[in-house]
Amino acid sequence: MPHSTGPSIGGGRLRVPPDTKGIVRYEDALSTIRQASVGLASSWDKPTPAQLATLEAGRKALAKALAELEAFYQKEVAPLREELSKAGIGMLRDFRPPQLPH
Fold first, then answer.
1. Rounded CA gap, 36 and 39, in Å?
2. What is the pLDDT of residue 6?
3. What does the pLDDT read at residue 3?
4. Rounded to 5 degrees, what angle do the CA atoms 68, 71, 72 make?
5. What Rg value do the Cα atoms of the chain yield, rounded?
6. Which end of the chain has the smaller Cβ count within 10 Å, N or C?
7. Are 84 and 92 in contact (CB under 8 A)?
8. For all residues of the chain together, what is the average pLDDT?
9. What is the CA 44 to chain-centroid distance, rounded?
10. End-to-end CA distance of the chain
């Protein structure tokens, strides 16, 4: 599933920034989960296969974006924090990106 290319965290994978101009494909994780939520809330009936598929697509998109955030943190932020700490600068606190429950 292609993702929006707007300038935001994760290259538009988590959300589409509010100031994005032009025609936007809302295929980011938040929009997909929101679409599933609206569908699920529209009826008291059991979720349809399409609603469950949309929810699963949102979960997969979110899991991918969170994995990319974790990789970025490990590759870029953690080494910088370590170097700053060695220099006696405690600017960046320890941070663990959120994870989905299993």
1. 5
2. 38
3. 41
4. 85
5. 18
6. C
7. yes
8. 80
9. 28
10. 22
